[in-house]
Amino acid sequence: MTIDQDLERLAFQEARLQFRSFDAHTAWTLGSRLHALAEQRHTAITIEIQVGGNTLFLCAMPGTTPDNLDWARRKKNVVMRFQRSSYAVGLQLQKDRTTLTELAGLEVREYAPHGGCFPILLRGTGCIGTIAVSGLPQRDDHELIVEVLTELLEERLEELALDAAT
User: What tens digit of pLDDT does each residue of 97-114 get?
Assistant: First the structure.
């Protein structure tokens, strides 16, 4: 898949993976499903779900480090700043051959334009929070979130998943 194709698919994901409502129970269900899928695949990830600056779900699985929580925080900052998935922002920067520092004066210690954070989008409202995962390669972090969101929102993964990386 080319960067342009990935960017198209990421925009499609963001348009389709939107909630009608989102509360602490939804965050718990989403976080628990992410955790269960990671366990099933024998991977270790950190998961953080926030709405309005409040952490509603946080889990650092055995095998993760404090760095994973920091990566999640930095990815979350990208999503909250640009209202797009951190993977989409990173790919757009790559396509444009620039960095967040060059584009907007943002420091890498505070912003990570790497896959693994997806906006919590509320239909008719927009971005109200973030779902962050850290511990896998960036495309895998992103795809794990999308896989669980498609299940939770009763969407078809085969329509929304990214194609194999080229």
Answer: 999 999 999 999 999 999
Which CATH number fits the domain that encloses residue 140?
3.30.450.150
CA distance 137 to 114: 9
Separation between Cα atoms, residue 151 and residue 10, nearest integer Å: 17
Q: Rounded distance, CA 132 to CA 117, Å?
A: 4
How do residues 115-146 score in pLDDT, each as one tens digit?
Answer: 999 999 999 999 999 999 999 999 999 999 99
Number of domains making up the chain:
1
Residue with tokens 């994901």: 13
Range(s) of the domain holding residue 69: 3-157
Helix axes 138-152, 86-96, angle to 10 degrees: 140
| pTM score | 0.96
Please check whether residue 165 lies inside any domain of the structure. no
**Which DSSP helix (H) or strand (E) runs through 50?**
strand 46-51
